[in-house]
Amino acid sequence: NAGVTQTPKFQVLKTGQSMTLQCAQDMNHEYMSWYRQDPGMGLRLIHYSVGAGITDQGEVPNGYNVSRSTTEDFPLRLLSAAPSQTSVYFCASSPGAYYGYTFGSGTRLTVV
Amino acid sequence: QQPVQSPQAVILREGEDAVINCSSSKALYSVHWYRQKHGEAPVFLMILLKGGEQKGHEKISASFNEKKQQSSLYLTASQLSYSGTYFCGTEKNSGYALNFGKGTSLLVTP
Questions:
Q1: Interchain CB distance below 8 Å, A48 and B55
Q2: Which of A56, A63, A100, B64 could form a disulfide with B48 if both were Cys (CB 3.0 to 4.6 A apart)?
Q3: Are the Cβ atoms of A100 and B32 closer than 8 angstroms?
């Protein structure tokens, strides 16, 4: 049982490049979310999904896209990387309401 | 909208108690508490549900005042292992993701 797996662990991008952060869970969780963590800002919600085919925006969605074609996978796409997107990104999943979230180990992204 | 946590930072000696508060301007469905060690992912501590039911798995307690839209995390007889950053997360209803506060840094010293 791997839990929530995020890849890559580290990534350096040039401004304007695009990339996809991968997130996969093997716990059959319905709820999945993406957060970014910056010093002093806590965990800010980017996008989330409450089931396959259902996604919604969080508080900081600009510059990011998501899709949820399967229960297991919830990739986060950076369309055109900017230095302001330098951050640590966490994916998290939960069975649903009433339950806690399990977090992946994070992706540290640097945009130069 | 992010809930507000207080205090921002706490330094304790081993064995001392601490309280961390979390408040929201909106009606809440549930409140979650997480702890994050430096360089690691947040780890779920407990969830408090509207109606008073509490779920958790650690020897740390919490309360949830639905009318005031506030929650408090109580760490008693603190241990060195309690050091880390504590986050509260709030759900406004079923079908929504968690919104987290900015965190409270807790340092327990010998």
A1: no
A2: B64
A3: yes
